[in-house]
Specification:
Strand content: under 5%
Distance between the termini: 40 Å
Radius of gyration: 21 Å
Structural class: mainly alpha
Oligomer: single chain
Order of helices and strands: HHHHHHHHHHHH
């Protein structure tokens, strides 16, 4: 019910992502109250845990922002971009290298760290890629690249040794299930993830059809679309 409330508010256009989080929190409080489990002690525990989690996330933001700033000031972005350009891999080769690096980082880092740290390096490289002849509109082409990166980031929840989905399953699994069992069992799902990424790369309309339709709709209404 809570999931339906959150997703329904987003899909229905009633709330943005941030507003849907508020709706989810309010819905959780109401459900807890309806079950008779709401108390001051429980509210205190939730507030303390939320504060700790928020502080940890903001600490990551501060560290990642500091790293990004120093990396730029020291010319790291230009050096990395120049090194990739010197390899002359072309748009496809460069995109594959970036996706592979993100995939490997997903084995050791959470997606938040990858986004905040690595995107400082990869964003200029991805902006320079020209897939307009392959996709069509440049703006839609960048959306297609974004979808590929997002799918690769999604694999970070599955890839060992630090896949958070693995630890989540381990916490709810029977005592006899070990991490080694999960590492072996996750292989088919990782292969499926790679297959999906490959399909989106070969058939970009999987990711670009809906944005393209929305852009066409805006164009018919006389709204200027940024290419």
């Amino acid at each position: 019910m809570l999931v339906a409330l959150i997703l329904g508010s987003i899909i229905g256009g009633w709330a943005s992502l941030s507003e849907s989080a508020t709706i989810g929190a309010l819905g959780a409080v109401l459900l807890t109250w309806l079950r008779g489990a709401l108390s001051l002690q429980r509210v205190h525990e939730v507030v303390v845990r939320t504060t700790i989690t928020t502080a940890m996330i903001f600490l990551i933001f501060v560290g990642a922002t500091t790293f990004s700033l120093m990396f730029r000031l020291l010319g790291g972005v230009e050096a990395f971009t120049g090194a990739l350009a010197a390899l002359r891999l072309g748009p496809w080769g460069t995109l594959i290298v970036v996706l592979l690096v993100i995939f490997v980082l997903g084995c050791f880092l959470d997606w938040i760290e990858i986004v905040l740290i690595s995107f400082t390096i990869f964003r200029p490289v991805l902006d320079a890629l020209d897939f307009s002849a392959y996709i069509g509109r440049p703006y839609v082409a960048f959306g297609w690249i974004t979808i590929l990166v997002a799918l690769t980031l999604q694999s970070s929840f599955l890839t060992p040794p630090f896949g958070f989905a693995l630890f989540l399953v381990r916490g709810s699994a029977p005592p006899g299930v070990r991490m080694a069992h999960l590492y072996r069992g996750i292989v088919p799902f990782v292969l499926i993830q790679v297959f999906v990424i490959t399909c989106v790369a070969i058939f970009p309309s999987i990711a670009t059809w809906l944005p393209d339709q929305l852009l066409n709709l805006e164009a018919t209404r006389g709204v200027k679309v940024r290419e």
